[in-house]
Amino acid sequence: xxxxxxxxxxxxxxxxxxxxxxxxxxxxxxxxxxxxxxxxxxxxxxxxxxxxxxxxxxxxxxxxxxxxxxxxxxxxxxxxxxxxxxxxxxxxxxxxxxxxxxxxxxxxxxxxxxxxxxxxxxxxxxxxxxxxxxxxxxxxxxxxxxxxxxxxxxxxxxxxxxxxxxxxxxxxxxxxxxxxxxxxxxxxxxxxxxxxxxxxxxxxxxxxxxxxxxxxxxxxxxxxxxxxxxxxxxxxxxxxxxxxxxxxxxxxxxxxxxxxxxxxxxxxxxxxxxxxxxxxxxxxxxxxxxxxxxxxxxxxxxxxxxxxxxxxxxxxxxxxxxxxxxxxxxxxxxxxxxxxxxxxxxxxxxxxxxxxxxxxxxxxxxxxxxxxxxxxxxxxxxxxxxxxxxxxxxxxxxxxxxxxxxxxxxxxxxxxxxxxxxxxxxxxxxxxxxxxxxxxxxxxxxxxxxxxxxxxxxxxxxxxxxxxxxxxxxxxxxxxxxxxxxxxxxxxxxxxxxxxxxxxxxxxxxxxxxxxxxxxxxxxxxxxxxxxxxxx
Length: 536
Prior knowledge:
The chain is an alpha/beta fold. The chain has helices at residues 2-11, 13-18, 23-42, 48-60, 135-160, 183-191, 203-207, 213-220, 224-229, 253-266, 270-283, 285-294, 324-327, 336-339, 353-356, 365-378, 387-399, 405-408, 413-419, 423-430, 493-515; strands at residues 90-95, 111-114, 118-121, 123-125, 130-132, 163-169, 309-311, 435-446, 460-473, 476-483, 521-526, 531-535. The longest helix is centred in the N-terminal third of the chain and has 26 residues, at 135-160.
């Protein structure tokens, strides 16, 4: 229990999840985890190991801690259905649109279904094309309607009993087409649907209701508060001693418009509100602190333009020269140069293969390059590779479903074999135990060494990548990287070296830290042109 809370305090994780979507629910769940750990200790169990084992056993049985219920905040408006409000209490409740017609579509079709009576079907006279409702259908309809209205009454009871202090019932009522709406006439209409001397509304009134207001209106129309307000002399003794306190108000368009204008006049304009706030801040230290928080500007804006986790391919242009780190911030990248290719800061995801075309028969150069690296990784270095062994290996990878057939056909087998005839390839074959291929690494660097607009030396970024291969012998450490680039009149050896020098420099820095020794030589091997290039 104490450990969980210490983790929350040390990492600030509670505050962090609060800023995420559904943050309040996330924080509630974290509090629930803490409470569960506290209950666990109260039952006599101790220790982190036992608690983790307890959680794992729950997971093994496909069980999980239930999502914690959100506590009702005092300064929060919650919008929910009547069913969703069951068991909850609120200081103030608005039950809106009580004049909305019930959804009785189940009673209007050509057939009506009932759990107990079965189905009631309308009868069609095929000769006259007339439709009749047989008694059997009317019986099913009556029973179904009664159950339907009973459920609506239960829902209304639930809704009206959620309020602790005040309940607002909001409805829309219409006047006739010929005459404008009359408040007193509406009260008289409701009263006409009641029985003098009986508290319960007549059965006909209850059964003919089309909305909640059809029950609420007649029920309150007999109350002394309504009779006194609307000047009716009719007496309803059954409610004469009732102590309920409520108010009924009618608003037409003119009255509503007038009330809104009065509210607008009473409200402060934005400028007046700001002026009052400024005056209060000058005299209230706490208000000044709040204003300082609201006006706070994050001092490391450059850090928000990229991620703290970068791949080598995303910043491979960092080092145009091996001595850039020693020379300072020369030629370092702007954050905007990384935000565009970054996988974590793009505004949209890459198109799926069936849209981009990579799923077609013609494989992309990237697919061929990936397959070539896979082949080179699987070659047995204890024997000298030849055409037969490499081809068999390629075919076996195809059979295993690791490489697609159409991609495997594009692999340059001659280029692969030629690599092992170079000086680096011979060194690899001579030292298979000291050779590592497809070696992943992570390198922690100062952000100021990567981006020129970082002025804080404490900022760090984590660079990750995969080194194609390296070999460590008694005479040094040798790093090599395969490339599928082709030489053309415009793309020379120097062009390729300049293109990948930064990437190899990063690989070299990471490998030197891993091995604890400097890298003797770095090489690029061009598979297409079967050429080994030493990179200084």
